[in-house]
Amino acid sequence: xxxxxxxxxxxxxxxxxxxxxxxxxxxxxxxxxxxxxxxxxxxxxxxxxxxxxxxxxxxxxxxxxxxxxxxxxxxxxxxxxxxxxxxxxxxxxxxxxxxxxxxxxxxxxxxxxxxxxxxxxxxxxxxxxxxxxxxxxxxxxxxxxxxxxxxxxxxxxxxxxxxxxxxxxxxxxxxxxxxxxxxxxxxxxxxxxxxxxxxxxxxxxxxxxxxxxxxxxxxxxxxxxxxxxxxxxxxxxxxxxxxxxxxxxxxxxxxxxxxxxxxxxxxxxxxxxxxxxxxxxxxxxxxxxxxxxxxxxxxxxxxxxxxxxxxxxxxxxxxxxxxxxxxxxxxxxxxxxxxxxxxxxxxxxxxxxxxxxxxxxxxxxxxxxxxxxxxxxxxxxxxxxxxxxxxxxxxxxxxxxxxxxxxxxxxxxxxxxxxxxxxxxxxxxxxxxxxxxxxxxxxxxxxxxxxxxxxxxxxxxxxxxxxxxxxxxxxxxxxxxxxxxxxxxxxxxxxxxxxxxxxxxxxxxxxxxxxxxxxxxxxxxxxxxxxxxxxxxxxxxxxxxxxxxxxxxxxxxxxxxxxxxxxxxxxxxxxxxxxxxxxxxxxxxxxxxxxxxxxxxxxxxxxxxxxxxxxxxxxxxxxxxxxxxxxxxxxxxxxxxxxxxxxxxxxxxxxxxxxxxxxxxxxxxxxxxxxxxxxxxxxxxxxxxxxxxxxxxxxxxxxxxxxxxxxxxxxxxxxxxxxxxxxxxxxxxxxxxxxxxxxxxxxxxxxxxxxxxxxxxxxxxxxxxxxxxxxxxxxxxxxxxxxxxxxxxxxxxxxxxxxxxxxxxxxxxxxxxxxxxxxxxxxxxxxxxxxxxxxxxxxxxxxxxxxxxxxxxxxxxxxxxxxxxxxxxxxxxxxxxx
Length: 882
Known about the structure:
With about 900 residues, the protein is mainly beta. Helices cover about 10% and strands about 40% of the residues.
């Protein structure tokens, strides 16, 4: 029996009725009179995510996720709208034209036959895989890292084979074969299953140790794996198996190499087989001295001549150890180390005949996130190396590798270049092109992350794709031509290759660098964004460089999927219309709406958004997104909260679910439902004037917004988080425009922050943030003390008259919590109204839902207190005692 909802019995009946109501309410009787949305109603709101489109585009899959975690997966017919729904379902896939598989709680795999609605359930399945285009389903009864029973099923779920004690497996890239290791009768073995025709064979077996780190060559002609024979001493053999002639090569690492510097094969290494199948790469690591114990009392020597901060070097050595990339040639048994202590960083070229080596700290302390380095090219065949690039940024966005050769693409001197190792030639690809490939020529003060990038290469290996600010270019790698494929600059439209195109066109190199290639003889999906009004959409770029729209307009379009018959599924939204799904079967056809989320919104008053335009001090046109209160009365005046952080107007079409769980404590919709205007302005920066630029742009944006007669000029609030928190701290030290402000995790002492060591992933001096990135001062403190002082909130704190609520996470790894403490102490000293909220176990943004709710409520109460004269919150008037 097929029901619309197939939900486990433990789900409360009221929840089922609620879900049914959400699906059926558009078809219910006459529209009800709208009412005010209350906090108790927020739980009804969910978030829509596109999951999959079947190959024939007859079925779609999407998910609604909720804060109560009753996430629901839907499967819907695109013609009849027949719909199935499954609460808690995950890891879902279409296989072929008639099958849909997914996991449900309590370790159940379910297979839905789409035509009949028949559902099969298989117990004790923790995870599963599809093989050979869905003709086989592989099920496992345990999670990863646990030995599992593997059952191999046909597409109907019938078991055709099984293997016990599977400890590791890898599917080939085509999913036509499975490499596995298992334990059978106290014997460990490595085997291969081929699915067409079905066969199973053993490659190697032993009675001791374990096999691990399985890897396929990209074309599935060979495999490699490790054999650990002693888990204590870490005695490890490398193994390589050539499938064509079924020949196994082994490399006894310990006996061949001995233990130089007490090194061994890194057990968690990612083995890699070169495209030609002749080389195997792996990582060595220095063994930890079990007798040596870390002594917290041992002095740390921080030498001023060190090129690498002591604390970051300490982090690397303690977590990652001293690693080297090693190379083994199975046919000759030759072995070599590729990098060294002087040049410890490495990147392999795509054919893996060469390695690019560099020392990330070659030039010592640099005020850049991506340091400048010297790149050396090492020929792995003859073990020679030479310098190829000097003082080149190590920004991964400024170097790329041709997927079909050893050629290297790099950005230098405002141009893109190709280096050919075989000929030792450098070719400037773009010197005859009049455009800017980085943001250094943009009106606003630039920062270091400048190159717009190289999204990929043509699949024939003859061309490379490049981005400028608006367009996509195709450049021949021999430098003979460089043509613009789109015409975005003339239309103020940014064209980019859609993310879905990277799914099946990208290879991950040994260093996990994405290398994408695109068949330029076929249509390519591009995303569009209009920089003037933030309209978005998708289009097709065909081989003749013509652009044909799929969809485009005054809304936000995202998550596009394409079927094999060229139908297109995507999500659309506006601020006042909850996300909905559309399908378009032909580019010249009319899209059809498949599903609209949060249909209950029609019963409530809701806000709207509008784009405002104003001018910077230099006269350039800027934008701000203005959000209106729900059920606005044109005869009343309303307070407004200004939310700042660099450029924010592109949020104009983004739908925001009402929610108390907000990592920054702020939710646009909550405020519009509570009778507020919300303004999100863009800020244009001048070099050396981050605070003053924010002050000028925000002031002008507020003046433009308050020209609307229903905004109360005396009831304006200000909020910013992180860099926006800094801007908030500074603005209120220069202006009395705001009646109340909230600063989250913001810098107050610019000079102190300049000398901070950030703990965000790496331990790095924060000087780069000020000299070459977001703070945009552009010089060191000692070259421009005046700019640092002039833009420092704490040095101007005596001017603050605006009541300020500060909040911070005590474990903030980006902006230390004492930056908020310092401003709090300064304002306390000056007897300025301020309160600070400190969340002891939180980082830069709040993660604990209870803390998110607490912060969201307190921020709203703060603004209500000062902008609505709501004097009820005693924590504001009297404080809170322990």
